[in-house]
Amino acid sequence: MKQNNFPRRFLTDAEDPSQQRQLVDKIEALTAELRTLSGNNSRRLPTKEAFVATASQIYAARREVDKVFGMEGFATSPAWDILLDLYVAADSNREISITSACIGAACPPTTGLRWIQVLESMHLLTREQDSEDRRRVIVEITEGAKVKVARALSAFM
Predict the structure, then answer these.
(1) What are phi and psi of 34, to 5 degrees?
(2) 100: closest CA among 81, 119, 75?
(3) What are phi and psi of 6, to 5 degrees?
(4) 147 has a pLDDT exceeding 70
(5) Of 16, 19, 117, 129, which residue is the least packed, with the fewest Cβ within 10 Å?
(6) 3-state DSSP helix/strand/coil % of the chain, to nearest 5
(7) 138 has which bridge partners?
């Protein structure tokens, strides 16, 4: 939960945490309005409309990612994170091991391995033994996957 800078004495009248949160939200909204009125726009807070528009764009972009990869829920899966990681790594000529790909996807290793198998079966990545350390396996994004990732990313722009 976000820490606020309001003195505790302003929150003591509202015993219920949800009432306290509502009070903090109102104070933040008034602060934003005062900044706008005073001409101090250096820290202008986004409007509710801006948040709704952003949420709508993110939702639409995720559905576009799902379409590009032909799988509902792809945009919220570890597979998308793995492909993003490999896409960035390919651009900077970095090698990504299977272990690193799983860590980058913020999922348990077994889940990451399952998704790597799915991505490999979809011809979106390849595996290759590390030539210097035979215990490591390197995963690389395919050229076709790079095209799909770029097309999916365009939905976020």
Answers:
(1) -65, -40
(2) 81
(3) -85, 135
(4) yes
(5) 16
(6) 60, 10, 30
(7) 97, 128
Between CA 80 and CA 150 the distance in angstroms is 12
Pairing of strands 137-141, 125-129: antiparallel
Q: Report the run of H or E that residue 67 belongs to, with start and end.
A: helix 48-69
Query: Taking the mean position of all CA atoms in its chain, how far away is CA 88?
Result: 14
pTM, full prediction: 0.70
* pLDDT averaged over every residue in the chain: 86
- Residue 87 CA to residue 81 CA, distance in Å, equals 10
Q: Which two tokens stand for residue 63?
A: 């559905």
* Sign of the four-CA dihedral 59, 65, 71, 76: negative
Specify whether the CB–CB gap between 82 and 89 falls below 8 A. no
Can you name the residues that pair with 137 across neighbouring β-strands?
A: 129
**Predicted confidence (pLDDT) per residue in 103-127, tens digit:** 999 999 999 999 999 999 999 999 9
